Amino acid sequence: MIRFFASDTVAHIMNTWSPLQQNLNHVMNGMSLLGVPPPIRSSQPPKDYSVVHGLRAAIEALGECTDLQLEKRKAMTLGDGNVKLINKCRIICITSARDNDSMKRLQEIFNNCLHAHNKAAVSSDRYLQIDHCHLVIIHTFPVNIESQVTQQPPRNISSLLTTEVYPIKAPLISNKLSSLILHHYDLASTTVTGIPMKEEQNASSSANYDVEIFHSKEAHTAILKGNAADSLAIRTIKEGLEYETVTLKWCTPRGCSASELQNCTSMYRITPVEVNSRPSLCLINFLLNGRSVMLEMPRKAGGKITSHLLASHGGEIFVHTLCTARSVLEDPPSISEGCGGRVTDYRITDFGLLIQQNRLLPIKSSYLGNLPISIPKVKARLNRHTKYWPLTISSTLIFNLKNYIDPLPSIITKEKITDEEMVQCKQVIYNLIALESKHEPLHLANVGQRSKGQKREEQYKIMWNELETLLKNNCHSENHKMVYNCLIECHKFNSDDGDKVELDQALRELDQMTKGDPEVQRASVIRATTDSPMSPPPLTSIAPPLSRNVHNRLGGIYSTPRSLYDIFTSQDKSKTRPDFAGRTGDSNVAKFNIVNIFYSIGE
Amino acid sequence: MRFINYWFHLQQYIRFMVAFSSLYEERCAFTRDYNAIKTELQKLDDYDKTGIESALQGASQLVLGEWGNNIACQFVLITDGNTGVGPLSLTESFSTLNHRNASNPFPLPFAFPAKLHVVCIAPNNDPNLVKSKPLYQRLVDMTGYDGSVLIPDGNLCESTIVSMFQKLAEDMYTSFRGTLKCGNLESRVTLSPAPIPYTKLTDFDCQTNVLSELIEVCGFMPIADVGSPMAISRHLILPTSSLGKENLPLNAEIDLADEDTAEEGKVPSFCVLLHGALKVENMTALVTLGENWFGFIYSWADSKKKSNLMLTVLTPGSDAVPWLGDLNHLDSSDNLMPEQVGSFPVRPSEKRSYSQNGVELNRLRKAAISLGFLDLLNGLAYIFEQECTQLPGSAHPDCALQLTHAADVLRKTQNKDIKYVILPLITNYNSS
């Protein structure tokens, strides 16, 4: 933060620490109200003009708390031992002194003021002590005379004060300030070259302009510390200035670079150096309007590389440093080559819906106040939305019956549901009951021919069981429970599923048999998704899920329950007795028969 | 004097080697080819001196040239316990630390995240080593992160040296095993490259954040809103088998039978589902990586269009991305009142004053008055009058009128109110 003071017979304070006054317009308005000093050869006797008034006011200002310091101070008085406060500052004083002696006196006066302030601040509630001050004096003089003040490198006047003096010809003050700023704030300069701009008078053609910007030095670290020859080629010292600028070429944006996340290793806010120049304005407006631009640097070895991205976010402009080095992720495998990569029927569209339902948005700052953090809340929300969420299309039936069960799935995952929504859910259940009683087959929305050959009764049975799982896992409130109870009351599970108990028993026994031998378990699970072309469609091989663990890593209830065929094969009978003659050869017909035999027993 | 010192740099599984003395020499470029390193090791010779600073300098240059300043690296300095004598010694390097300038900076801390391990092949009670140990420790401390100084346990013999290196290898290359969780859906995952703890230095303290084993999805955001925030690292998220293969030896990848891989490919994985949906929707998932630490997961494709799930690790803290606001306060619109819901990008409370609007007379006048440069106004008035006399015959008659008007007003108002606005003269030509 920066404060401005002018000093004549008194100190004029141009702005305060308030964030509202930390901008160019405010300071410029203050300056204009100040007016012009009277001509030197005025008829009136010279008044007591002195820079000391301004310096005193500056010291006082540095002792005032900024918003952040005030916050810390409060925390400290409340006894928070973790909060620390160091009040370091710098004053840049532009003045004119007669000679080295008067400059020396000025520094001594300042040093005394500083110590006096700290003494007074000890017992003050309002003022902070100043832990250290860096005083930079710019002694300015007209171009046609010689300076009687010599340059003075940084020197410690006391433990509190370091001073330095630069004699600068009046027209060069701004250049000097630029180099001081770079040094004081660890900034660096980039010149964006080759920006095509249209002239107002000559809108049909465009000329190329350069715009210089300042930003944190760190934004250059990657390119300057990399290849020495490359970095040498882009560093130049601008005419009349003391500092280096890195020249990067404007790269006309094609397409929208916002659609992908760039490999950005650092980002810093920027400011144009010449805030009043036309090209600066042009570039700034281009960026503020939401467009971004890549900057490239040439390479000695030939070609060029995109090294930075300029973009604005929320009215602030940033330079993003992009990774120009070799990538450690050379030749990565594609996700389709790893675990789960060969599965082709993930419920991508449904998960897309879940993504849209769980979009995060900011809360308007005026409402933030003392709101508790919302991350646990949104995680709990995701938890609720995924209570029952099969990963693949073939491991679910109800989510393929959208035209029958919507809007139940989206309602039931809500934290609270209204009475009206509860009625909607119940209606879904009633409709399904009605359909079943009319012997209407269920048409699957996105499975296509997979449902062919599935018996209607079987389909309903699976649907009811899966619906029960969904509702049972989503009993978040009384209304949720009423939906669940509605299902239990309307549909008689036990009497309808006479064979369910036996199958469950079989599964339990199988579990015991295979316990402690993950290989066997895995084999059976995998086989469930690698059926031969002649095996029954996956949906018909789904066993009722009632007693199964819902939170199965392999994707909901439907991948764990096995058909009798699976149970049979997973017991690996071939080891205990010879296989059927038909299976030993490559006879598909024989396999087909076996499947059908066991399938019919299952029914 | 006989010193044998050499360097390994181990970068994931890519290493290089530098031999050093008064100068350094790159003996082996970054490679995954172990035989090349072995061959080069056998060719290693003795040099004139021990110059650890020059070695650090060289290693730093090589890393920056090849990997930039963002990739975490590990260094192994192998030494006989000597730190050198004379102007190139470590003692000398340390004693001149405070007199360095931009042209000869001390190479530590590195410009990139790095761990330094100093391995001393010397007996425990070696008098040289006793003196060197604190100096080595100082190097390790300066590098930051948690490096180490290693000395063989017990007598100096082949077996103690081998076990020392084995221990080092285990410490350095433990791969990350964690869980990616989204509500009740989850996947066991590994991250490549393995994440390293992030150390944040502030005015008053130094905080180290270690990535949690639980990477938990909070919700989702469009890629366009996220922009390209600064990341401290990026990692591929690779789903691992959940079928009891947790305790594999380091070289597991090579041993995996093809059949196993093929079967794993057919077991549904939440990672693959998430990847597919994020790609289709052009969205990212905001995840928590630890206490008040966030990251983004999204679909990423390399130059060969091989698509993968990528994790971008943000700097710790909920304020890592200014235009997203406080990440801890992002919420679902369902949880909020309609009037509370904001939108991206989140704007700072004050508008930045980047630049002033276009050049025009009133702005120039205002600037001149603000800066007390009133002569400019007189000069300008004079220029306008000159321009007036030199107008070509073809010029619009309004030109002369307006120029004269402007010159007049500039002179008249020069000591007056800054808020005064010069308006064009209304003439027959422009009053339509």
From TrEMBL, chain A:
InterPro entries in the cross-refs: Cell_cycle_regulator_Mat89Bb
Domain of life the protein comes from: Eukaryota
Keyword Membrane: no
Keywords of the record: Cell cycle, Cell division, Coiled coil, Cytoplasm, Developmental protein, Differentiation, Meiosis, Mitosis, Nucleus, Spermatogenesis
Classification via Pfam families: Mat89Bb (PF10221)
Localization terms from the record: Cytoplasm, Perinuclear region; Nucleus
Example GO BP: spermatogenesis
Keyword presence, Glycosyltransferase: no
GO CC terms of this entry: integrator complex; perinuclear region of cytoplasm
Major location (coarse): cytoplasm
Transmembrane segments: none
Subunit annotation: Belongs to the multiprotein complex Integrator, at least composed of IntS1, IntS2, IntS3, IntS4, omd/IntS5, IntS6, defl/IntS7, IntS8, IntS9, IntS10, IntS11, IntS12, asun/IntS13, IntS14 and IntS15. The core complex associates with protein phosphatase 2A subunits mts/PP2A and Pp2A-29B, to form the Integrator-PP2A (INTAC) complex.
Similarity-based family: Belongs to the Integrator subunit 13 family.
The protein's name: Protein asunder
Taxonomy of the source species: Eukaryota, Metazoa, Ecdysozoa, Arthropoda, Hexapoda
TrEMBL record, chain B:
Gene3D superfamilies (alphabetical): von Willebrand factor, type A domain
Any Pfam family hit: VWA_2
Keywords: Nucleus
Main location: nucleus
SUPFAM superfamilies in UniProt: vWA-like
Integrator complex subunit 14 beta-barrel domain mapped to chain residues: 173-317
Cellular-component GO terms for this entry: integrator complex
Annotated family: Belongs to the Integrator subunit 14 family.
Name under which the protein is recorded: Integrator complex subunit 14
Native species: Aquatica leii
Lineage of origin: Eukaryota, Metazoa, Ecdysozoa, Arthropoda, Hexapoda
